[in-house]
Fold:
Amino acid sequence: MVPIGWLQFWLFSGIAILFFISLIRALMRRTPDSGGRREGKSRVGIIIQSISFFFAGFGGVRPELPLFSPASLAGAVAVLLLMGGAVYLFVASSSALGKNWSLEARMRTDHQLVRDGPYARVRHPIYLGMLLFLLGLAVAFGHWLQLAFALPLFLAGTAIRTRLEDRLLESQFGPEFRDYAQATPALIPRLR
Structure:
């Protein structure tokens, strides 16, 4: 556990609340499924990702840094960038998906292949946002050691979910999805 400043802790807390408000709002906007197929195995990925967040947040917090020390300010800027990116990616991605958005992998009968907004750069931007949230959590709490356990777990859970979602999309959209997948990375955008 690394010493932190109160500023990074409170920034994380405030932005995390915005993230969860955005999540609740997206859940409330969902429309009923129109038939389609579900992939229940995606719940395994959700559980593994959730455990990774537990590991990243587990342990005490040492807010000992002076408020305006360089280390405290650097931590606050890192939290602001990571968490701001997490909220932006979630809001922009769930908005771009519209009625296609869901917690678990599923395919609606009227599903559309979304390729604009954040989906123009990565196929799974919500998971990239979750990765930024995980990193923001570790930085905000000073839990660098816990991140050594949390990050591989998160990536394993994400791999399960992305494979299942990609498989569903390929079965629905065939060559159109394969072209998209070949041109667009799964999680980390290419530098241009």
